[in-house]
Design goal:
The protein has 171 residues and is α+β, with helices and mostly antiparallel strands. Helices cover 35% and strands 22% of the residues.
Length: 171
């Protein structure tokens, strides 16, 4: 059974450390998604490294593990969030949704409730980093614990038994 874990981080340093830990322990496959509003990307001491690593062309300067998880598209606009930088499967999903659909609709396709999906959208809107990690049944708790250990908040775990997006009828 496929499971997913989601968490919110305050900034890039915690996000990066949590993901490196999870990858290092082989707790998740490479399908980790990260989303942050573009305007909050370049903050703090990490500014330069992140600017290089999140650029959508390979950076020769820094061959750090960032490359492994942040292969993504150029920044693009998402309804209700504005310009975002997204890594992982979530990038393609957000880009190819029907017009007017945003992050909550994408999260619904992972099996999250509408109420929680809107909560996470609000967190991203206010400048937090969202990390979404599909994993296996036996590793779900370890992933959640690792996210928490590095400062992840609002950590939730759920089954992704739905294999097709479910959109709310009324918007």
């Amino acid at each position: 059974m496929r499971k997913s874990v989601i968490a919110i981080f305050k900034g890039p340093q915690q996000t990066k450390e949590a993901i490196e830990e999870i990858q290092g322990e082989s707790l998740a496959n490479s399908k980790i998604s990260v989303i942050v509003r573009a305007e909050y990307l370049h903050q703090g001491e990490f500014k330069e490294e992140i600017a290089n690593e999140l650029a959508y062309y390979p950076s020769e300067i820094n061959l750090d593990k960032f490359n492994a998880w942040l292969v993504q598209a150029p920044p693009f606009k998402v309804p209700d969030l504005g310009k975002v930088v997204v890594a992982g499967p979530l990038a393609s999903q957000l880009m190819h949704q029907p017009q007017g659909r945003g992050l909550p609709e994408a999260l619904l396709s992972y099996g999250l409730s509408e109420e929680r999906a809107r909560h996470y959208e609000h967190e991203v809107r206010t400048g937090h980093w969202l990390v979404l990690i599909p994993t296996n049944n036996d590793k779900q708790n370890s992933v959640a614990n690792a996210l928490g250990a590095f400062g992840g908040k609002d950590i939730e775990k759920w089954n992704t038994a739905i294999d097709h997006p479910i959109y709310p009828i009324n918007h």
